[in-house]
User: What shape does this take?
Amino acid sequence: MEALSNIPWGLIAPLLVLQFVLATVAIVDIVRIHETRGPKWVWIIVSLFVNTLGPIAYFLFGRKNQ
Amino acid sequence: MQQFKALFLKEWRESVRSFKLLWIPLVFILLGISDPIMNYFMEDILKAVGNMPEGFMMTLPEFQPADLLMASTGQFQSIGLLVLIAAYIGVFSRERQNGTATLIYVRPVSFTAMYASKWMVASIIAMISAIAGYAGSMYYTALLYGTVDWMKFFAMLGTYCLWLLFVMAVTVAMSAAFNTSIAAAVTIVIISLGLFIDSLFGGFWSVTPWKLANYGIALLTDSVLLKTYWLTVLMVVGLTILSIVLGIVMSRKNMRQLKI
Assistant: This one.
């Protein structure tokens, strides 16, 4: 526990929050969109577990327009 | 002008509804703030990763604020530009492929207005992203390392926005000229491979368009001759205008490729 409290959370928190927001936006979009390129559940797993690059990959390659 | 306004609104709505206005700036902010934080904690990271031999000593360089901004610029130039190019490479070609273009081309629409609307929206999103990214980078740099001269910082920001205008003009022009995959390849060769080659052999000459972002950073430390800087700016502006003309001509010529 001591190791955890030694981390300067004030500095790191924004980084974590931004990654969280990015992943949330991606997942909300995957759930609401009609169809994605490739199966939806794969994109949800990728966006959840691959930091930063997962959501980017979804928006660039997985998202179908119309 | 009326046409331009309508087309501009259409492109803007498309960018908002596909979340481009949200996720591209987020990516730039993440890229911007990761470098100052990483370098600040480098000693702890090396300790935690471990496997250092007993008595291993390493002196990390003392970073100046301008060095951190340079590192962030490097991230924008490699990953950020790829993201921007990939996000906007389809603006013309994908419309031709999926048939949206038929709905537009049946009206007497001006190709100048069409190119301008697409280019403007792409550039505005790119500039918002770059400004957000540099703001994040500068915030952490100021917090952890110290500040730079603000006037020079804004000059650097303006230079980078000019470079992004050029990149987006090339991207949209290539999208007008070829279909999506060829356009992506050509744009990445022009921009990313160009940057790579220029960083390898750039010592032999001083004025190329790919050096503009580095000269913007060099403004912070006064390590660039103003004459070469302005020549580079002029060259980039000239090439931007050339790409715009090419894009308008090619988008009119490729009207025939339309699938119905």
